[in-house]
Amino acid sequence: MSLPSRHYIIWVGLIWPLCVAVNAWGENTHNDYTSLIELIHIEDKTAPLLALNDFETKTDTEDQAGFMKYFDQHPEIVKQIQNSLGEKAIRWRLKKIQHRLLFVPELRKEYAGAFESYCMEVIDYLLDQTQLENPYHAIRTLQKEFPEPAENGVTVFLVHNLAQESIADFIFLNSRKKKVEIQLKGMKYIGEVGS
Predict the structure, then answer these.
(1) Domain segments of the chain: what residues?
(2) Which residue in 4, 61, 115, 142 has its CB near the most CB atoms, within 10 A?
(3) Mean per-residue pLDDT for 72-99?
């Protein structure tokens, strides 16, 4: 399952710039969001990690370089491959790289509720100031894997933390076309807003 192109992920690290914006409309604010400032000072949670979408095959030169750096930092793996192939001079090719997004849900109800309310208020304020039509269908705090965004409009998913998981399949060959296949897995927290 791939998420439709009209969705956004906002992770709670975005709170600081949004909290600063509270002063932009001051007395017109209906709720007190100072508790969200506490959230900025709390260490990021890294678990539980839930799948946002299924793996998708992509070619990403940055990830390919990261996996090649892994081979450079672990010469014993390359040596094992060379031994398996019976030659020192080997060739390799990338078979495929797959990615998926993972998220850490915001499980503290007081922060999740305040952040949802705050996002709605900020969006309402900005749309009022710009006289633009509201493109957002829903703003939801994610609690489960593989969410279903709305069919029409933009769905905003609020999460505590965001990560990208990657799997790369490599084929190593010797001069006689004997091959060894290797699969590497990696994950990094990306903290990106939007998707």
Answers:
(1) 7-189
(2) 115
(3) 94
